[in-house]
Amino acid sequence: MAPGEAPPPGSGSPRGSAAAEAVAVAARKQRALARRKAFSLFVKAREEPAGGRCPAGAGAVRWRCCRQAFEERAGIHRHVALQHGGDIGRQAGPGQAGPGQAGQGPAGGTDTAGSADGHTGGAAEVSGSLPDTSHLGHGELTSKVGEVLLYYCYCEVKDPEKLCAWQEALCQHLHLTGKVRVASEGINGTVGGSKVATSLYIEVMLSQPLFKDILCQEDFKSSAGGAHCFPDLRVGVFKEIVPMGIDPKIVSYKETGIHLSPQEFHREVEQYLSQASQGQSDTILLDCRNFYESKIGHFQGCLAPDIRKFSYFPSYVDENLEVFKDKRVLMYCTGGIRCERGSAYLRSKAVCREVYQLKGGIHKYLEEFPDGFYRGKLFVFDDRYAICSNEDIISACRYCGSLWDQYKLCSSQHCRQLVLTCPSCRSKGLTACCPVCQEKELKVTSRASGQTLKEECECTRRRPRVPIEHVSQRTLDAGKD
After folding, report:
1. Catalytic residue among 153, 288, 333, 425
2. How far apart are CA 278 and CA 211, in angstroms?
3. Is 434 part of the annotated catalytic residue set?
4. How does pLDDT run across 345-402, given as a tens digit for each residue?
């Protein structure tokens, strides 16, 4: 060191250490300020008018993020802090949240590197691990006393084929049967097995890195059943995890309606029925399931489209836009998944005032309100066909008109539609869905290969593919059943 030259700041210099600490403190303050600003901008970007029914009154706002609506500022702040730390870091500037580096949100929440839609920005890799079952007896995994699980999870899947292979291996390992659909937009499944097996399945799904911070325990709906409720296990890769027939890139689940808890939905339906009985309702209670589902069970006063497939739902909306114009729409389905895409499609038409959906579907509603506004059976897509929560029977035998709600397959091999025919009529040989099928049942209608030849019968031919609703009649009928 030259004479008169000041010693360089370093560990050996008290003055240098103090200067370095001051620089570090200033840098930390600058980073904290940048994160607070980024946090505020992130929250502001998710702000929208609350609507006329908000308790806060005119001019009030709410926030929408990750397919959820937040009425209170504290709620959206907590959500962003816990789920979007990575996004805040990236918006705040370089060094705030590097690749793979965990950071802290403004409220002390752990950074989950979430994207703006609430799902993992980098799409975690699929873990192929299987649970240890060596401590379990064969009977514990294969017991017929079990349950059926219903769930779905929207998230970014980089390698659907790998997720599909893991799902198939996992289900086989746990002796589960059922159907699982995998796509680049997520996973949708209904599986049956012993209670030990289904509990392990949930545990493994929740520990899968791909579903971390997205899927939770309450997303699994369960009902009494087991592996016997399905003929086999079918796991496959598809373009959509629920077949609406619209490219997910065009109508995304990220644009879904506002989720209402079963309690909130119950209050809304109660208010709707009260107003509808006086002819004053501005709300439509929309069942977005197929006609054969709503036929044996539905919410009182609902609009139940007479459609055979969910892929007809977009056309139904297009043909009946006037029905939904300037209305508040309350949507529901079995477990919630059809509402995710269905509400997004309805919102894309920009005709409704507001679109809400029942979180967890009818399944979750019946857990809390078994004797509420939903009457009749809940149709399920397995060999049970329906599950019961109340004693109401709202449908009738196709032949004699007596109350009956237990489906069987049409006995005609060329058709195999679902039919409601009571024991008395079945004993008389009336086991087909319509007279055309009843007559054809007496003939052999199959290919040379032995495969079933499906033909259009009287039931399907006479039903319009996309029905046109009559608003006035629906208004008069609201709340009567």
Report:
1. 333
2. 46
3. no
4. 999 999 999 999 999 999 999 999 999 999 999 999 999 999 988 889 999 999 999 9
